[in-house]
Amino acid sequence: MEPSVLLLLAVLLSFLLLLVRGHAKIHGRLPPGPCPVPLLGNLLQMDRRGLLKSFIQLRPIWEKYGDVFTVHLGLRPVVVLCGTQTIREALVDHAEAFSGRGTIAGLEPVFQDYGIFFSSGEQWKTLRRFSMATMRDFGMRKKSVEERIKEESQCLVEELKKYQGAPLDPTFLFQCITSNIICSIVFGECFDYTDHQFLHLLDLMYQTFSLLSSIFSQVFELFPGVLKYFPGAHRQISRNLHEILDFIGQSVEKHRATLDPNAPRDFIYTYLLHMEKKSNHYTEFHHWNLLSSVLSLFFAGTETSSTTLRYGFLIMLKYPHITEKVQKEIDCVIGSHRLPTLDDRSKMPYTEAVIHEIQRFSDLAPIGTPHRVIKDTIFRGYLLPKNTEVFPILSSVLHDPQYFEQPDIFNLQHFLDANGALKIIEAFLPFSTGKRICLGESIARNELFLFFTTILQNFSVSSPVAPKDIDLTPKESGIGRIPQVYQICFLAH
Fold it and tell me: Which residue positions does the secretion signal occupy (predicted)?
């Protein structure tokens, strides 16, 4: 069924529901915004290419509203925050008030406000404290993340050599290496690159991330209460995630069968021990929070870094002169006879600037993850009632012209000063900021540096397509930004 037909049905059914139930008014003084049309909200004023384009276009069109305005997604009002200072003021200066999690309609039926990513309030605080402590234990103390990444890097190098420079799509190999890092922490094991079940799970995650970022999922955000009854991407997303949950559930049962209170070996073991403590008064430690938290960590730990690497190497193919300069710095600082280490990072400002600019330009989570105020909150003179949804548009930070001279162009001078040193920019917030900053930020930063440098230490890269013809326009841009599918040749030095 065509999206336009679904949308028409959604509008008609919404009208009927409105007549029956009435329309609940939000009491408060929300920021001004474009005048909504009954039932449709601001749909008619939005860009057909999606929510991000719409929010960015709404900002200058209604310039009088500034960087804080209200947009109606169907019957659902959301407060949109744009710009570095605005988002920092909300998520840092008013961190507690803005610490609730908003709704992603395509994921809500699966997670249902559970787990580390989608919970709020005391449940979220307890799960976050536990998750941070446990990931620190199994990511840093037992065996450092650095050593894990270096081992995985070597496995990747050996795998890439097998292709002997033949063109390949790097999607699943990049997924394998990033997923194995989080798998070692969460499941206590890594997987072979030929493991069929593992590859199937990676494919499900890739499909899901693509579907979540599709235009259909963005339309679904407007009328989820009605569109959920019709076929569409939301049903495939649900099927995919439930299949991954089945795998996680089987792993949990295996852990439970071999549970040793004296030797917790990973995230799942440690969580199960918390569940079994008779003196434990935290009701947050239950089975569904475990499954939802593991799914969140598994999914995010795989897709975020792998997509950034995939975008990064596409950019390197587009700009081979930048790749050559990175390799010269690698030769100068590291050489060819030892593995890159995290200590090398401070001596490699050019490479660091490249990775920073890749993260800024790729703009992986452009809309940001929705927040929700957990209490009535005064912000910029407006009263945001408790449970008001807030969209901090991270793309408006990573493309903020006050900090980046050419925000829409890949330009290393954004992060290099006149002396070639790395510049620290407060608008560099690819992991968001505040209390709900990405839990795996440090792991992701380490992965990007070590994987990126190890690959370029061992291989030259080339494309079957001429650099001028390489398209950096994302294939999908919604919840996430996903690069075009491409082929790359890794030529061993």
Answer: 1-24
Q: Quote the CA–CA distance of 459 and 153 in Å, as a whole number.
A: 13
Residue 489 has what pLDDT? 98
Give SS3 for 428. Answer: coil
The C-alpha atoms of residue 361 and residue 73 are separated, in whole angstroms, by 27
Question: Binding-site residues for heme, please?
Answer: 438
Ordered strands of the 371-372 beta sheet: 68-73, 76-81, 389-392, 371-372, 100-101
Question: What is the pTM assigned to this prediction?
Answer: 0.91
The closest of 251, 267, 249, 269 to 259, measured between CA atoms, is: 269
466-478 pLDDT, tens digit per residue, is 999 999 999 988 8
Could you read off the pLDDT of 2-60 as tens digits, one per residue?
545 445 554 444 444 443 333 334 446 899 887 777 777 766 566 566 666 666 665 55
CA atoms in the 13 A half-sphere facing the CB of 462: 9
Burial class (CB within 10 angstroms; exposed 0-12, middle 13-18, buried 19+) of 466: exposed
- pLDDT at site 45: 62
Extract the annotated binding site.
Answer: 438
CA distances from 402 to 417, 418, 430, 431 (A): 16, 18, 17, 20
How far is C-alpha 335 from the chain's CA centre?
Answer: 33
